[in-house]
Design goal:
Elements (H helix, E strand, L loop, with lengths): L8 E5 L20 E2 L3 E2 L1 H10 L4 E5 L5 H11 L10 E5 L13 H7 L1 H7 L4 E5 L2 E3 L3 H11 L3 E9 L7 E5 L5 E6 L13 E11 L1 H12 L8 H12 L2 E5 L11 E3 L3 H10 L27 E3 L1 E2 L2 E2 L1 E3 L2 E2 L4 E3 L2 E3 L2 E2 L4 E2 L4 E3 L2 E2 L4 E2 L4 E3 L1 E3 L4 E2 L4 E2 L3 H5 L3 E2 L5 E3 L1 H7 L3
Parallel strand pairs: 1-4, 1-6, 4-5, 8-12, 14-19, 17-20, 18-21, 19-22, 20-23, 21-24, 22-25, 23-26, 24-27, 25-28, 26-29, 27-31
Antiparallel strand pairs: 2-3, 6-11, 7-13, 8-11, 9-10, 9-11, 15-16, 30-31
Helix pairs in contact: 3-6, 6-7
Length: 412
């Protein structure tokens, strides 16, 4: 697709621990968690940036950042041209104020304030690195500038029952934000929809001078937790021009799709969404491509066609490098280089890169982490009481096999 460059400066907040997504985040940050076979969560935000022409991007990392830094460097540098003045930079904490890591998302921006001061950008776009959605940020920037706003917050309607997981916005006339609740027990509902509320997407557009002033005030406030949602938005809403921008989906599926995959069940469901016959989130849209690390792996291969030993996959995503050898894959996502051996069966599951499934093994409603070898004849997801004694099982019954748990359950 053709794109024009926007003169905005963009920060992607990618340093969070993602504790609700453990054990998948025990050895990697949340934005580096694999998604949809060949992607990482941060790829969806970075794809939106490139597709929107936001090409001055700074990724702020902290927690277990080596894997994420490697992914960004290997997969994304080719989309940015320094010759044209484009930037993709990964930044760890600068230790400017606290003598330790980022104290919160607002502190991450405060420690990076020199970039804003030197760039003198049109505006500052701040994004989360761990949500799944498609969005043309240029439309939000135009809305922000049209309102003469100090801050514009991307907003999406969610069920009120999910409100306690988000920052919830109260909006008055002309889309102006009049109140903000951070993960409230009783979210404020929409006037015309008592079962719905308006959630912050973690997408912000700031007027640069207003952002710098708010960051200085926040840094000097001993009561602040230095968080964008909890502290910065309410602070700016009290006396500034702060507006909500209704999410306009660039996903060509006919609906609105935005997912915060902050829990194991939400993460699992987001993967399952991708493999529907008519997926809510379309990976195959050439007008708004989702990019990732280019693969050097060979095409997937399916071998053997005996009556009880046929290599096949149905309603599934099978990544490059996979070999399905006399095994069956049903309604599942296989990452690169997965190997399934004869008469094994994988159903309704997500397998990360380099998983090896032994002969006659059965896997159902499970997430299997990178490089795990499932032994011959092993069953996962068929006896949840037994699985709970070995692995993490989500509230909806998804079995999550981490590398550490696999080493204990299946010692070599």
């Amino acid at each position: 697709m053709s794109m024009s460059r926007d003169r905005s400066l963009t920060f992607i907040l990618a340093g969070g621990r993602g504790q609700r997504l453990e054990p998948l985040t025990a050895e990697r940050p949340k934005p580096a968690v694999p998604m949809g076979g060949v992607y990482r969560l941060i790829d969806f935000t970075l794809s939106n940036c490139v597709n929107s022409g936001l090409l001055d991007v700074h990724v702020l990392v902290q927690h277990l950042s080596a894997e994420l830094i490697r992914h960004v460097h290997e997969g994304w540098r080719s989309y940015f041209s320094p010759v044209r003045g484009e930037t993709l930079q990964v930044l760890p904490p600068q230790f400017a104020q606290s003598g330790e890591g980022y104290r919160g998302t607002a502190d991450a921006l405060f420690q990076s304030r020199a970039i804003v001061e030197q760039a003198a950008p049109r505006c500052v776009v701040v994004l989360s690195g761990d949500h799944v959605y498609k969005m043309d940020y240029r439309a939000m920037v135009a809305f922000h500038e049209g309102r003469g706003a100090d801050l514009t917050v991307g907003a999406v309607i969610v069920p009120r029952a999910e409100g306690p997981h988000f920052g919830v916005l109260e909006v008055g006339e002309a889309d102006r934000i009049t109140g903000f609740q951070e993960k409230p027990a009783e979210p404020v509902y929409l006037p015309d929809a008592p079962d719905r509320c308006l959630a912050s997407m973690g997408v912000y557009v700031f007027r640069p001078s207003a952002l710098l002033e708010a960051l200085w005030q926040d840094s000097e406030d001993p009561a602040s937790l230095h968080d964008c949602g909890r502290d910065l938005v309410p602070r700016m809403a009290k006396g500034g021009r702060v507006y909500a921008y209704d999410f306009r989906d660039a996903n060509r599926s006919g609906g609105v799709y935005w997912r915060d995959v902050g829990t194991l069940d939400a993460y699992y469901q987001a993967n399952m969404d991708l493999i529907a016959v008519n997926p809510e989130f379309n990976l195959y849209d050439t007008e708004w491509p989702i990019r990732g690390v280019p693969s050097l792996a060979p095409p997937p291969k399916f071998v053997h066609s005996e009556p009880d030993r046929t290599g096949m996959a149905t309603d599934s995503i099978v990544s490059p490098g996979c070999i399905v050898s006399g095994a069956r894959v049903v309604h599942s996502v296989l990452g690169p280089w997965v190997r399934l051996h004869s008469r094994s069966l994988v159903e309704d599951s997500v397998l990360f890169e380099n998983v090896d499934v032994g002969r006659h093994a059965r896997i159902r409603r499970a997430i299997i982490d990178v490089g795990i070898r499932v032994p011959e004849g092993e069953h996962v997801g068929h006896d949840l009481d037994h699985d709970r004694s070995r692995f993490v099982v989500s509230p909806s019954g998804i079995v999550v096999v981490s590398r550490e748990a696999a080493r204990e359950a299946w010692p070599a």
